[in-house]
Amino acid sequence: MNLFRLAGDMSHLLSVCVLLLKIRATKSCRGISLKTQELYALVFVTRYLDLFYSYISLYNSIMKVTFIATAVSIIRYMRFDKVVKQTYDKEQDTFRYAFLVAPCLVLALVLNHRFTFTEVLWTFSIYLEAVAILPQLVLMQRTQNIDNLTANYVALLGAYRGLYIVNWIYRYFTEPHYRQWLVWISGVVQTALYADFFYFYTKAWKHNTRLQLPA
Amino acid sequence: VSKGATHDEL
User: Fold this and answer.
1) Interface list for chain A against chain B, based on CB atoms closer than 8 Å
2) Which residues 6+ apart lie within 8 Å of A80 measured at CB?
3) Whole-complex ipTM
4) pLDDT tens digit sequence for A119-133
5) Where do the structural domains in chain A lie, given as residue ranges?
6) Which of A143, A179, A175, A140 is nearest to A158 (CA)?
7) Residue of chain B with shortest Cα separation from A112
8) Contact, A108 vs A40, CB < 8 A?
């Protein structure tokens, strides 16, 4: 575990905290894509199946359980909380699951390190995580006033991916057998998706104005 | 590619 990886994980954890804070404190999930949240839940469930058969560290296990539990909690608020569910922009959140899930599944079946059930699911989760933010980005383009908590949530998610890339570069040079092009390519694609967002995020921050993404 | 190396991240 290096500092970049830890900072990435903390950024990821903080993003979830910011989202839960927004939902619980403001009783609103306006501007948040349920599709992205459900895709993340699918990512975590398919990737962390190894909780049942392989142990890496207490840190890893706690983080995995935390990410699954918080993802389920967020979905529960957005779908079933009487107050929160009324603030969900259902008509705007129109991205189709199949457009993302199907290609990722096909790709995982074709491009993987080992053709086993758990390995294919793990690879699927890597591909799906790369594109799971798309419904959220599309929803933000359609939302006129993006609130600060939503903007910070997405910024923290982007920071998490960026820090993981630095972590991979560090590990490439410090660990002799650390080669995983499949994860790296997906990670770079995922981070690139945030480039546009970060451009407007820093611009809004510099001029102290509200974030607005051009349609 | 060693499996262990790729599965220790979150």
Assistant:
1) 5, 9, 12, 50, 54, 56, 60, 63-64, 67, 113-114, 119, 122, 164, 167, 175, 177-180, 182-183
2) none
3) 0.84
4) 999 999 999 999 999
5) 3-205
6) A140
7) B1
8) no
What are the DSSP calls for A155-208, one per residue?
A: HHHHHHHHHHHHHHHHHHHH-TT---HHHHHHHHHHHHHTHHHHHHHHHHHHTT
* Distance from C-alpha of A207 to C-alpha of A132, rounded to nearest angstrom: 30
Residue whose entry in the numeric block shows the structure tokens 């706690």? A62
Tokens found for residue A208:
């102290």
Q: What confidence tens digit (pLDDT) does each residue in A1-47 have?
A: 899 999 999 999 999 999 999 999 999 999 999 999 999 999 999 99
Which of A180, A181, A185, A186 to mutate to test binding with chain B, by most B CBs within 10 Å of its CB? Answer: A180
Q: Do the Cβ atoms of B7 and A183 come within 8 Å?
A: no
